[in-house]
Design brief:
Elements: E1 5-11, H1 17-26, E2 30-33, H2 40-48, E3 56-60, H3 72-82, E4 87-92, H4 95-105, H5 117-134, E5 137-140, H6 146-157, H7 159-162, E6 167-174, E7 185-188, H8 209-216, H9 219-241, E8 246-253, H10 259-273, E9 277-282, E10 294-295
Parallel strand pairs: 1-3, 1-4, 2-3, 4-5, 6-8, 6-9, 7-8
Antiparallel strand pairs: 9-10
GO molecular function: ATP binding; GTP binding
Keywords: ATP-binding, GTP-binding, Nucleotide-binding
InterPro entries: P-loop_NTPase (IPR027417), RapZ-like (IPR005337), RapZ-like_N (IPR053930), RapZ_C (IPR053931)
Length: about 300
C-alpha cells in the first residue's frame, strides 16, 4: 500500500458526494460508491495486489450503509493498525441548502424516508460528528456550484497537487455572509481603508487596480500585509512537518468585495512567488450578481 492513494469520501446526504466521486474518477481514481466500511481494508489490500494497475482509490462511505455504517470508526482504526494510509474528504452544507436540494431533487432523506427532511439532516449531523472530526479535508458546498466543487476537488487531488507538500487556499469573504466553515486561519481586515465609501470605487472589486491602489496606498495596509505574509511563511514548514496537506487562509471584510479581495490577491501572489501551490478564491465577490471568480 506504500504507493497506493486511498481517499474516503463521506459527509452529509445532499452535500455533493456524487459530484466529488465523478470528479475523482476523471482524475484517474478507481471509484466505488456506498462500500460497507467493513470491506474498506480488504478492498484496499486487493487493489494493492494489482501490481500497480490500481494505485488511486476513492471510496464513498456514508449513512446509506445503514447498520454497516456504524462500524466506520472501527474500520478506520483497522486501517491505521495495518498501516494503510488514507485521506478522509468530508462534504457538508448548511441545513437550508440541504433542505432546498432535497426539495429540488424530490428525493427523501435516507434517515427519514417518510418524515421531515430537516429531522433527517439533524440526525445525520449527529451521527457523523465523530467522523467529521477525523476528516483531513472538509468542504462546505453551500455556496459552491458543481463546477466550483469540481475545481476544488481538482486542486486537492490532481497530480500537481500531489507533487506539492501543502496546498494553500487564500479565501476572501464577507463577514455579513458568515464565516467560512473550512477555514484554518481567519483574518479580519475591516480595520483597513474602505473603498466602499468612495463613490467611484464602490461598484468595483479588489480585482480592479483602482481598488487595489486605494487599499494599498495606506501604510497600515502595506505593513499588515508584510507582517501577515511573514507569519504565514513562518507557519508553512511547521504545518508540513506536522503532516498537514491543505491550509485555508480566510481573509474577511464587511462585504467580501474590496479589502478582503485585494489582500487575498496580494497575499496569494506573494506565496506563489515562493513556489507554493496556491489557489486564490473569492467567495462573496459577486454576491450581488452571479458566479465566483477564482485565480489559480
Amino acid at each position: 500500500m506504500k504507493d497506493t492513494k486511498l481517499v474516503i469520501v463521506t459527509g452529509l446526504s445532499g452535500a455533493g458526494k456524487t459530484q466529488a466521486i465523478w470528479c475523482l474518477e476523471d482524475l484517474g481514481y478507481f471509484c466505488v460508491d456506498n462500500l460497507p466500511p467493513t470491506l474498506i481494508a480488504k478492498f484496499a489490500e486487493l487493489c494493492a495486489q494489482s501490481e500497480g494497475k490500481i494505485n488511486k482509490i476513492a471510496l464513498v462511505v456514508d449513512i446509506r450503509g445503514g447498520g454497516f455504517f456504524d462500524s466506520i470508526n472501527e474500520s478506520l482504526e483497522n486501517l491505521d493498525r495495518i498501516g494503510i494510509k488514507y485521506e478522509i474528504l468530508f462534504l457538508e452544507a448548511s441545513d437550508e441548502t440541504l433542505v432546498r436540494r432535497f426539495k429540488e431533487s424530490r428525493r427523501p432523506h435516507p434517515l427519514r424516508p417518510h418524515g421531515r427532511v430537516l429531522e433527517g439532516i439533524h440526525e445525520e449531523r449527529k451521527r457523523l460528528e465523530e467522523l467529521r472530526g477525523r476528516a483531513h479535508k472538509i468542504i462546505d458546498t453551500s455556496n459552491l456550484s458543481n463546477k466550483q466543487l469540481k475545481e476544488e476537488i481538482i486542486a486537492l487531488f490532481s497530480t500537481a497537487r500531489e507533487e506539492a507538500a501543502l496546498k494553500i487556499t487564500v479565501l476572501s469573504f464577507g463577514f455579513k455572509y458568515g464565516l467560512p466553515m473550512d477555514a484554518d486561519l481567519v483574518m479580519d481586515v475591516r480595520f483597513l481603508p474602505n473603498p466602499y465609501y468612495v463613490d467611484s470605487l464602490r461598484p468595483l472589486t479588489g480585482d480592479d487596480k483602482e481598488v487595489q491602489d486605494y487599499v494599498m496606498d495606506s501604510p497600515i495596509s502595506r505593513t499588515f500585509l508584510r507582517r501577515y505574509y511573514g507569519l504565514i511563511k513562518f507557519l508553512i514548514p511547521h504545518y508540513i512537518k506536522e503532516g498537514k496537506t491543505s491550509l485555508v487562509i480566510a481573509i474577511g471584510c464587511t462585504g467580501g468585495q474590496h479589502r478582503s479581495v485585494t489582500l487575498a490577491n496580494k497575499l496569494g501572489a506573494m506565496l506563489q512567488s515562493d513556489r507554493n501551490y496556491v489557489v486564490v478564491r473569492h467567495r462573496d465577490i459577486d454576491k450581488n450578481s452571479s458566479g465566483v471568480r477564482e485565480n489559480v
